[in-house]
Amino acid sequence: MSPRGGRTLAALAACAAVLTALAGCGIRPTGTVRADEAPRARGPVATNTLYFLRHGELAETTRRGLPGLGMQEHAIAQLLVGPTQAERRSGMTTEVPPLGRHMMVQAAMRIVVPAGTRLTPMARAQIVCTAFAQKVPRVEFVHPEEGAAIGEYGLPVGKTRAYTCESRRAVPVRLNPKAG
């Protein structure tokens, strides 16, 4: 290092030390300052009813949900994650495969089923009855072809089948010709 570089480095170090010392000027030590309680959310606590499987039959469980708009989508998202550890210990399983986007469209839940994905009757019942428990009258499964065009609401266009839940079973419902 050159003598000039050494002096510059020493000057910078001295300036840093002076600035550090001055930074604390005028601040007096205080005792412990107490704050109020942490804020708490208030309001209604929503619960989502989900349907998993136990011994090959639909089994109901509840989880904390989100109140208001988006509640239905949240219940389906919880179902797609699968049973919690506690639910698995109680014997709950799922047949629901990974699925595409899902969203409320008018009075129906639309769920995109990726190409090549097969829904078993029990997986379909899990989804449809979970949505029905959230006051969704029907679920529409959209089966797009590879490279399908994007339609309204940003969902791919494809063959659509609709179901409702009756006696813990997914029962097909007829769509009007305009809907799919």
Description:
- The termini are far apart.
- 22% of the residues are buried.
- With 180 residues, the protein is of the alpha+beta class.
- It has helices spanning 3-23, 71-81, 85-89, 121-133; strands spanning 47-54, 57-64, 102-105, 108-112, 138-144, 158-166, 169-173.
- The protein has one domain.
- It comes from Bailinhaonella thermotolerans.
- Keywords: Signal.
- This is Histidine phosphatase family protein.
| Helix content percent band | 25-40%
Net shape? elongated
Count of individual domains:
1
| Spatial arrangement of strands, main beta sheet | 3-4-5-6-7
The biggest beta sheet is recorded as:
5 strands, mixed
Number of DSSP E strands: 7
Q: Let me know the average pLDDT.
A: 80
Succession of helices and strands: HEEHHEEHEEE
State the distance separating the first and last CA atoms.
Answer: 78 Å
Q: Regions with pLDDT < 50 over 5+ consecutive residues?
A: none
Number of helices: 4
Strand content: 25-35%
Structural class: alpha+beta
Topology:
Blueprint: H1 3-23, E1 47-54, E2 57-64, H2 71-81, H3 85-89, E3 102-105, E4 108-112, H4 121-133, E5 138-144, E6 158-166, E7 169-173
Parallel strand pairs: 4-5
Antiparallel strand pairs: 1-2, 3-4, 5-6, 6-7
